[in-house]
Amino acid sequence: MDVLILHYHLNPGGVTRIVESQVKSISFNNNILPVKVLCGISSGLPMLSNIQIVQDRLMNYVSADISDENLVQNQAEIISLIRSHLTRHTIIHSHNPNLGKNPALTAALYKIAGEGVPVINHYHDFAEDRPANMEFLGRVLPLLTSETAERVIYPALSNYHYIVLNSCDVQRLTDKGINHRQIRFLPNPVPEWGSNLERSQDLREKVCSALGFSASDFLCTYPVRAIQRKNIGEFLLMAVLFAEAANFAITLAPLNPVEIPGYERWKSFCNKNSINVRFEASDRVSFKELIAASDFCITTSIREGFGMVYMEPWLAGTPVIGREISCVIGDLQHSGLRFPRLYEKLEVQTGQGKKDFKDISVDEQENVILNALKDRGIKKEIFQANTFLDTWLNRVPDDLILNNQKIIRQKFSLEEYGKQLLGFYSEISR
Hints:
Elements: E1 2-7, H1 14-29, E2 35-39, E3 52-55, H2 68-83, E4 90-95, H3 103-114, E5 119-122, H4 131-145, H5 149-153, E6 160-164, H6 167-175, E7 183-185, H7 201-211, E8 218-225, H8 232-241, E9 246-252, H9 260-272, E10 277-278, H10 287-293, E11 296-299, H11 312-315, E12 320-323, H12 326-334, E13 342-343, E14 347-350, E15 353-356, H13 362-374, H14 376-385, H15 398-411, H16 414-429
Parallel strand pairs: 1-2, 1-4, 2-3, 4-5, 5-6, 6-7, 8-9, 8-11, 9-10, 11-12, 12-13
Antiparallel strand pairs: 14-15
């Protein structure tokens, strides 16, 4: 048995981190299993010892205006490229291949799986959640395969398997008619990085000084790239509601050009209205030190596959508070983790009545934030409508933090991840 890992790139980001963890976890449990990575042209390749990384432009994202002729040619070339790295015993483990980022790759994998090669589709995101991507797939996959997009994205093949990150996605695939034997629920591993960081006053003062904050106030950090689904406006509203007690920072700007205008709009909005939020905080201080120096890590995200943001900060002793995503949190709570400061909705008054903040337009979100900024009465109304805010920044007990750390290290370690992954490979290769 050998494993060929496929992804569009190995640029810094969430899926690349999982590919790294995958390779390391396999090596941790079986250092003789041959593993190769095939990806697009990437910047800043991760350090993966004893692993061959093959880069080819064919694997990269393509734009939706690519010609039909180029797509057909790319599909043929990708099939040849993948076949050149196959043995009689290869398992293909592909990350997000059906996301609509490169339909020629989607069609090529469908063709190769149809020849009997074992294929794992590791879902981190779904094209159905991105209408433009799904439209792209629906338009071109019939051209490339003479099949409907649905049939290509969810093949009825016994050798085509799925890995998903939460139980809701298990149900999503089951509803598509996928046999449950072909679906594996495999939560991401959580890297052990926080234990060697000392949460000291010196570190806190160093970080706050670098960010231009007072060390005497709470430090609340959103450790993400500020893309649309992270619901940045809600984080900014929290910064206004708790401006007298806490400082707020968000770590990274988006890389996707499509996301940048929305991000710049929020930055400009904060600058224009003197909202004291530090953007791109990781440019001023190391990410690890920032998390360890924070009193809380906050998430206002509305959609996650696994939700690493709910997990990592605990290892540095930093509690996670914020918006609950039930599909993600339900699985984590089932593992024994506890999240005492999560909320299901943030109710605000709009021209159309009371609504959850995440469900209103960006224009309406700006109006709510400005009203709370300028009118203490409206700020008070928001607190009255959302009573969890009264205790939201209360101290989280040490024993709860320690218990969460213990569970994460036991159940979400690289070693445990590798055991489950190798078990899945063994089942598939029989």
